[in-house]
From TrEMBL:
The keyword Oxidoreductase does not apply. Its cofactor is Mg(2+). The lineage of its organism: Bacteria, Pseudomonadati, Pseudomonadota, Alphaproteobacteria, Hyphomicrobiales. Keywords: Hydrolase. It comes from Phreatobacter oligotrophus. GO terms for molecular function: hydrolase activity. Pfam families: NUDIX (PF00293), WHD_NrtR (PF21906). This is 8-oxo-dGTP diphosphatase. InterPro entries: Nudix_hydrolase (IPR020476), NUDIX_hydrolase-like_dom_sf (IPR015797), NUDIX_hydrolase_CS (IPR020084), NUDIX_hydrolase_dom (IPR000086), WH-like_DNA-bd_sf (IPR036388), WH_DNA-bd_sf (IPR036390), WHD_NrtR (IPR054105). It comes from the Bacteria. Residues 12-148 form the Nudix hydrolase domain. The keyword Cell wall biogenesis/degradation does not apply. Belongs to the Nudix hydrolase family.
Length: 219
């Protein structure tokens, strides 16, 4: 350790720090993620997760939110940390540690726009992901595991459908996320007791029996 006029410095190498953000939504009845096509080296023209480097004095949470806006135009979206990636050689630019964040959104509530360093941006089904830059395939897989493990304990699911919604629509979304049917009675009880949704005074219209419409509880 050395002491300089501006304070302490430590004689250890320091990694660069980045954030990688997985944006998930239900697209055409399937779970999809938002990818950018890189416009710069390394991995020029390869698809990748949105993200970028931490600035001096910036918190990691602020970095994730800023990079998401800069690279996709998506803002005001809750972000959930799910992993840290520090394997040697994961980034050809040097020693880089990345923090993974998850954002669950409604597909048509956001309007993605590629940033200046991206060649393109687009939604991709998680079942048909192209080859990804860096270790982003691992990060994406971890985010899906995190989503499926947290979907019953955090208010992620209601953010993935438009408001107002029926319990049937919410169940459809759950089945897309988990990739399997869920029990109707247990699911409805879980959602009604979760504190994440609230009844509205609206009902569906049409030939069938009207169904109650619900909205997200605002945090």
């Amino acid at each position: 350790m050395s002491i300089h006029k501006h304070g302490y410095t430590y004689d250890y190498p320091r990694p660069a720090v980045t954030t990688d953000i997985v944006v998930l939504a239900i697209t055409e009845g399937k779970l999809g993620t938002l990818l950018i096509r890189r416009g710069e080296d390394p991995y020029r023209e390869a698809w990748a997760l949105p993200g970028g480097f931490l600035k001096e004095g910036e918190t990691i949470e602020a970095c994730a939110a800023r990079e998401l806006v800069e690279e996709t135009g998506v803002s005001h979206t809750p972000l959930h940390q799910f992993g840290i990636y520090s394997a040697a050689g994961r980034d050809p630019r040097g020693w880089v540690v990345s923090v993974g964040y998850l954002a669950c959104v409604h597909r048509h509530a956001i309007h993605p726009k590629a940033g200046s360093d991206a060649a393109a941006i687009g939604w991709h089904s998680v079942d048909a992901i192209p080859d990804l830059a860096f270790d982003h395939a691992t990060i994406l897989a971890d985010s899906l595991a995190a989503l499926r493990s947290r979907i019953h304990t955090e208010p992620l699911l209601p953010r993935m459908i438009s408001e107002p919604f029926t319990l049937a629509a919410l169940q459809d979304a759950m089945e897309v996320v988990v990739g399997a049917p869920v029990d109707k009675r247990n699911f409805r009880r879980e959602m009604l007791e979760s504190g994440w949704i609230v009844e509205t005074d609206q009902f569906t219209a049409g030939r069938h029996r009207p169904a109650r419409l619900y909205a997200r509880v605002q945090a």
